[in-house]
Amino acid sequence: MIDSFNHALDDVTGWIFETLLQPLMYQAGLMDWADDALEWLEFGLFGVFSIIVVYVVCRPLEAWRPVEPVTDRRAIRTDIIYTLLTRLGLLPMVAFVLLASLQAWWEGSVADSGFVPPTLETLFPALREMPLLAFAIYVVILDFGEYWRHRFQHTFRWWWALHSIHHAQRQMTFWTDDRNHILDEVIAALWFGAIALLIGVPPGQFPLLVLVMRLAESLSHANVRLSFGRIGERLIVSPRFHRLHHGVLSIADHGKNYAVLLPVWDWIFGTADFKRDVYPRTGDPEAPEALATGGWLRQQAVGLKRMAGAVFGRGTA
Amino acid sequence: MRRRALLLSAPLLLLARPAAADLVYVLNSGDSSISILDAITRQELRRIPALREVHHLVLSPDGRELLIADSGGNEIFFVDPATGDIRRRERVSNPYHLDFSPDGRFLVICSLRRNQVDVYDARSMALLARLRMPEKPSHMAFRPDSSVVYVTLQGSGTVAAISLATFQPLWEVPVGREPAGIVWHRGRLIAGIMGSDHFAVINPETREIEKQIPVGRGAHTIFAQPDGRALWATSRVQSRLAEIDPSTLDVRRVIDLPGGPDCIAFDPDGRIWVTLRWAGRIARVDPRSGEYETIRVGRSPHGIFVQPRRAETEGLVQTSAAGRGANAR
C-alpha cells in the first residue's frame, strides 16, 4: 500500500519534472539545481496530497459530531487561505535548504581540521539498520522542540503578539492549524529546520516529518467532539486535548496543553489538563476584532503592529 | 559412447555454467539506500540503508572492495562486491564523486557542496591534500600516467587540472555551462556540458576545445565500453543514450531513453545498465538492438555498478581500467 502510493507519487513527480519543470530549468540555466528541484516538487505534491487527506479525514468527523455549529464561514475561508499558503511546507523547506547551505559552508570551513559532524546514527550505530525507529526518534525529538517553541510563543510578549492571531479564531476547524503570522511561520521553520539539521535528519525524511506533524496538528484543531480515551489522551494529542488549549481561559501565559503531537511533554512539565468532558469556547477575548474576523492581509498587519508595540513597550501584548 | 563423452565433459559444463547471476548495485540518492539486484531475474535481493545521500561508487584497484560514497552522511561504505556485505565505514568529508588514480596510489574525492577536492592515500585513507576549488567540483578523469586529475566545476563552467605530484592546481579552462561527467580518451578530455546539448572535446595540452559532440539537451556523463569499441553518453533533459565512435567521435546512433539517463555500467555480456534519475528506475539496454526494459528501484537512482558472478571469475580481480572506470561514475 505504502509502496504503491510512493511509486505513484514518484511517477507523477517524474513526469511533471521531465515534461514541464526540467525544460524550463534548462532554458533558465538552472540545471545545477535539478536534483533539488525534483525533491521540492515531490514535497509540494505530497503537500497537496496531505491537504486532500486532511480534508477526507477531518471533514466527515466535523460533520459527524461538531462541538459547535458553523456560524462564521468567512473566518473559515481566511483559514483556508492560510492553509494553502503554508500547508505545502514551502517555508519549512526554504528554511531547511537555507540552513543546509549554511551547514555545508560551516562544515566546509571546519573540514580542514578533520572534524566530521556526527549524526544520530553515528552516535547510535544500531539505528542504521532500523530507519523506521530512527524516524520515530526524530519525530519525538522534533516534537519536544515544538512543545518548547509553543511554550515560548505564550511566554514572550512579542511572540504572543504574533501567536495570538492563531488563538483569536472563534470558529475553530481543522483549517485553523495554519492560521499563523508569516513571521511566526518563518521563526517556526528556522526553529524546526535547525533542530532537524542538528540531529541529522536525512533530507529525504524531512518532508515526511513535516507532514506527519502537520497531519496531527490539523486533526487536533478539528471542530469535533472527540477524545482518545483515558490512555489514548496521554499518547497522542486529540481534538479535545488541543481545544482546551484554545479555550478563552487559556490565552498567553495561562495556557495548558501545549503539545503538538505527544501529550507526554505537558505531563512531564506540568502543563497538562486531561479533563475529557470539557470542550470550551475558543478565541482570545483580549485580541482586537481584526484578528478574529479580519482577512489575511489585515491580520498580518495588525499582528506586526502589535508585535512592534510589545517590543517597544507600547500597546497590548 | 555418448554417455562416456557426457561424463567426460561434465566438469567442463559445470565450469562453464554461471554460479550465480551478476549483481547490480544501484545507489538511490533520493531515499538514502542501496539496491542490490539479481541481473537475471531483475529482482531486488537486498536494500541497504544509507545515512543521507548516496551518489557515486568505485571499485578498489584490487577488485575486492566497492566504495560507496554517502555525501550527505559524510562517510564511505566499504562493501564486499560479491555479497553486498558492509565491511567497514570511514568518516569522510562530503564524498560526492570518487575514483582511484590509474596507478592505484590515490583516491580522489570531489565534494560538490563544500567546493573542495581531497586526495587520500588509497591504502591508508590518510588525507594527503585538500584543495579549495571554485564552485561545485563534480566529476573527474585521470591522465593515464596518474600525474594529473581533471575535475569539472559545475558552478564555474570550467575544467581544472590538478597535479598529483605537487597537489597543486595547474590550470583551469572554461568549457561551457554546468559541465558534469568527464572522461580521458586517447589524449583528449571529453566533458558533458549539462547546460547545453553537447560534449566538449578538450585538448589538455593546448587547453582548447577541439570539437563538440551533439547528443541532446542536458549532456551529462560519458563512459567507455570495456572493449573500447564505443563510448556511451547520456543527456538528462532530452533523455537520450548516445553511442559514439571512439575514433571519429561522431555519434553513431541515439537511443531515446525516457526518465533522465545518468550513470552507466556494463555487464559481462555487453548489456548496458543505466540509471534513470527522474523515473525511479534503471534501464537494461541491449546495445545490439537498441531495445531496453526498465526495472523499478528507489528514488532518484544515480550511481550503478555490475559485479560479475560467473563461476570462473568469482573472487578474481578485475583488472580492466576501462571496466572499472565505466562502472564507477
UniProtKB/TrEMBL annotation, chain A:
Its main location: membrane. Residues 135-271 form the Fatty acid hydroxylase domain. Keywords: Membrane, Transmembrane, Transmembrane helix. It holds the Pfam family FA_hydroxylase. The keyword Transmembrane applies. It is found in: Membrane. The chain crosses the membrane at residues 40-58, 79-106, 126-148, 182-200. This is Fatty acid hydroxylase domain-containing protein.
From TrEMBL, chain B:
Residues 15-306 form the YNCE-like beta-propeller domain. Pfam families: YNCE. InterPro entries: Host-pathogen_enzymatic-act, N2O_reductase_N, WD40/YVTN_repeat-like_dom_sf, YNCE-like_beta-prop. Residues 1-21 form the signal peptide. The keyword Signal applies. It comes from the Bacteria. Gene3D superfamilies: YVTN repeat-like/Quinoprotein amine dehydrogenase (2.130.10.10). Keywords: Signal. This is YNCE-like beta-propeller domain-containing protein. It comes from Roseomonas fluvialis. The lineage of its organism: Bacteria, Pseudomonadati, Pseudomonadota, Alphaproteobacteria, Acetobacterales.
